[in-house]
Write a structure and sequence with these properties.
One of its GO terms (molecular function) is glutathione transferase activity. Keywords: Transferase. InterPro entries: Glutathione-S-Trfase_C_sf, Glutathione_S-Trfase_N, Thioredoxin-like_sf. The chain is built from 11 helices and 4 strands. It is an alpha+beta fold. The chain has a 4-stranded mixed β-sheet. The two termini are about 15 Å apart. Bound molecules: glutathione (GSH). The site of glutathione has 13 residues, from helix 3.
C-alpha cells in the first residue's frame, strides 16, 4: 500500500494529497508526530519535512519532488504538459506557490495559533499527542513559533510578500484566460497554488473549513474578503469546488 506521511494541518501535505487524488492513486494518509517525524524523514529521504511518500521501494520527500516522481511513474492524468513552454510556466508557478505557502503559514499562524481549533487539529483526535495534551500542547506551540518564525514583524513582512506573490499569480491567471494557470486544463501550477493558498479561504472539505467564518480573527476575515472580490480568490474557490475530488480523509490515520 502506498503511504503518504503527513501533518493533517499542513498545506504542503494538502498539495501532496491532491496530487495523489488527481491521479486516482490509492494511498493511506498516515500522521506523524511533529518533531518526532524527523528521524524517519531524515533516514528515508535526508530531508526534515513532510509530506513524504512511500511507494513500493521509493521514499520521496517534498511536494514538488512527489509531483515529478508520480508523473514519471504514473503518466496518466499528467500534472505537467509535454510542451516545453507549458512545462516551464508550470514549474515557475509551482515555485511561486511554494513561497506563497511559506508566507501564508507565517502570517496566518500569528493569528491562529492561539485559536483553540488550531491546536485541536494539530493534536488529532487520539494518539500520543492527545494522551499527553497538557505537555504536548505548549511544546508544539513553542516549536511552531520558533521553526516558522511566527513573530509580529516577520509576519507583517510575510503579508507584504504574499500580496506581491498573489498579484503575480493573478496577472498570469488573467493572461491565460482566467480558467487555469497554464494551458487549458488543471495541472501542477493550479494544484500547488490552490492547495498552498487554501488556508486563506477555508474551502469545504479541507482542514481550514470553519462553521462560522465570522469568528475568524479580523485581519484574516478582511483579507479573505478582499481576495474573494478578486479573480485570484474566485479562481481558488472555483478550482476547489470543481476539481478537488478528495478520496482520502485529510485527518489521516
Ligand atoms: N518544500 C517542502 C515544504 C514542506 C514543509 O514545509 N513541511 C512542513 C509542514 S507544513 C514540515 O514538515 N515542517 C516540519 C519540520 O520542518 O520539521 C514541500 O514542498 O513539501
Amino acid at each position: 500500500m502506498r503511504t503518504l506521511y503527513q501533518f493533517p494541518l499542513s498545506h504542503y501535505c494538502e498539495k501532496a494529497r491532491w496530487l495523489l487524488d488527481h491521479k486516482e492513486l490509492d494511498y493511506a494518509a498516515k500522521n506523524l508526530i511533529p518533531g518526532l517525524h524527523r528521524p524517519l524523514a531524515r533516514f528515508k529521504t535526508s530531508k526534515n519535512t513532510l509530506p513524504m511518500l512511500h511507494d513500493g521501494k521509493n521514499w520521496i520527500a517534498d511536494s514538488t519532488e512527489i509531483a515529478f516522481y508520480l508523473d514519471g511513474i504514473y503518466p496518466e492524468q499528467p500534472y505537467l504538459r509535454r510542451e516545453p513552454e507549458f512545462r516551464a510556466q508550470a514549474i515557475e508557478l509551482d515555485q511561486i506557490a511554494s513561497q506563497i505557502g511559506v508566507h501564508v503559514r507565517r502570517w496566518m499562524y500569528l493569528y491562529l495559533l492561539d485559536e483553540p481549533d488550531t491546536m485541536e487539529i494539530m493534536l488529532g483526535e487520539k494518539g500520543f499527542l492527545r494522551m499527553t495534551e497538557r505537555f504536548s500542547k505548549p511544546f508544539i506551540k513553542k516549536g511552531v513559533i520558533r521553526l516558522y518564525g511566527i513573530y509580529p514583524k516577520k509576519a507583517e513582512a510575510s503579508k507584504q510578500k504574499l500580496d506581491a506573490l498573489i498579484n503575480q499569480v493573478e496577472q498570469k491567471l488573467i493572461a491565460n484566460g482566467g480558467r487555469y494557470l497554464v494551458s487549458d486544463r488543471l495541472g501542477l501550477a493550479d494544484i500547488a497554488v490552490c492547495a498552498l493558498s487554501a488556508p486563506l479561504f477555508g474551502p469545504q472539505g479541507t482542514p481550514w473549513e470553519i462553521d462560522e467564518p465570522a469568528r475568524l480573527p479580523e485581519p484574516i476575515r478582511i483579507y479573505r474578503q478582499e481576495l474573494l472580490d478578486r479573480p485570484f480568490g474566485q479562481y481558488v474557490m472555483r478550482i476547489y469546488q470543481n476539481e478537488r475530488h478528495a478520496r482520502v480523509d485529510w485527518r489521516g490515520i
